[in-house]
# Entry
Amino acid sequence: MGIENIALLAIKAIANNPDLLKNMPNIPFPTMGGHVFWNTIASDKGWKLQQNQITHHVRILDPDNIRHGWGTEEEMQKLLNKIIK
# Structure
């Protein structure tokens, strides 16, 4: 099985069971800004709350498109509120 097939199986598994993303580490990581597969559902002071179109998990990006957290929408909304204040 090639890496492409493994990645596709992983994406399908997450899409079918988003709870798999709970308790994942939140490590600041550069992104491409979410122009593909991401919807910005809130923004403030350059920070963005984005939801993945496939898995529906949510992440927070700073004004430089560095990811500072990912998880459920409720968790990330709380974290974004702390960051902005």
Summary: The chain has a mean pLDDT of 85. The beta strands are 29-30, 38-44, 47-52, 58-61, 66-71. Residues 3-84 form one domain. The two ends are 47 Å apart (CA to CA).
